[in-house]
Amino acid sequence: MSSTQRNTLILKMANSLNSLKQKKLTASLHHFIQHSIAMVSDAASTIEGLKATQHFLNCLGRYGNTPFLFPLYGLGEIPQCFCRMCAVFGGTYCLRHSVECLVVDKESKRCKAVIDGRGQRISCENVIVEEGYLPQECCKHVQYQQISRAVLITDRSVLKAETDQQISILTVPPFEPGQPTVRVIELCSSTMTCMPGTYLVHLTCVSRRSAREDLAPVVSKLFVQDLKQENETTEGEEEEEKPHVLWALYFNMRDSSSVVKRAYADLPVNVYPCSGPDSALDCDHTVSEAKSIFEQLFPGEEFCPPAPNPEDIIYDGEGGPPRDAGFGSPATAEPSEEINAEISAGDQSTKEAETECSTKASQGEDDTPESSSPKQEENDPPDSVNDEQPEDSQ
């Protein structure tokens, strides 16, 4: 699909989001455009629908037919890969060091250092922190949104397919007016997030009530939670076999993605809070927030440049890095001529010392009588033991 065709399709969809009923589209087509392509709620504006549709279409054809990618072992691998790249280029990580407090200068209102859980003071120029670690005094005036979430482990997939190894994404529109749109993501065992023969299911929506009240109707619609529900079928009506819920967890969590920095009270000027997880399907807000903080700290620098070829990396000082470069085989540096000369001199001195010791040992063996053998020396007690023995034993 060319860029012109995509823009034309986006424009038509964006116009139809406000006038789908006037265009006399069927309910199925209306549902498909809104929930499967744009993936927006009923309250979304035309601009929001336009951006969401453009984002969906721009992702098509990048890595196959689907516009989605999911990392093995879960989303925690995404920040881990950035941490790995940071460590390769000189970043230092202090593991098992919790931050207890900040040292703030009264005059400049800047954080000068942090105190860890061991009482150690670590100087700093800036602090980037997830907002959940901020003290309650800073967050007392912040108005948070809430997210309802459920995590399920099931015995089979919701999607009837030839293979049982796929990732399924489902958007469930509201059953009744006022209810939230629920997004369902089902992960198979090949994603390395669950045991073979089971599936990991995430349900997420914007909170209206508690997580169980928001998500239980969708769970009952798609899954069998207990034997009682499985036996409740209408007479003369055959119900399709549904996956069984082996384990379920419902919880609410706060969404700080819409909170700006000035909403936090008495926050030092060089402390930058980051929001936690939100209800969106992608990580666009997280990347945008990271880019904004980076541009404030390092104006004019390129944000997240592509990783260079290991052969093109130039290290400061003579020789290469003493550790693994992180992109493949360990990087080994050839020693310089000076080091080679020192090693050669050291080898020569070692050889001379060994020759001298062997000569002395040969002379000692010639002068020593046969009775003084190493066996006799082993039988003699050490000096410390002789000192402890009583005098009459001598």
Description of the structure:
By secondary structure, the chain is an alpha+beta fold. Helix content is about 35%, strand content about 15%. The chain has helices at about 5-20, 25-40, 45-60, 75-90, 135-140, 210-220, 225-230, 285-295, 335-365, 375-380, 385-390, and strands spanning about 100-105, 110-115, 120-125, 125-130, 145-155, 170, 180-185, 200-205, 245-255, 270-275. Strands 6-7-8-5-9 form a five-stranded antiparallel β-sheet, covered by helices on one side. Strands 1-2-3 form a three-stranded antiparallel β-sheet, with no helix packed on it. A two-stranded parallel sheet has the order 4-10. A hairpin with a 4-residue loop joins β2 (about 110-115) and β3 (about 120-125). α1 (about 5-20) runs antiparallel to α3 (about 45-60).
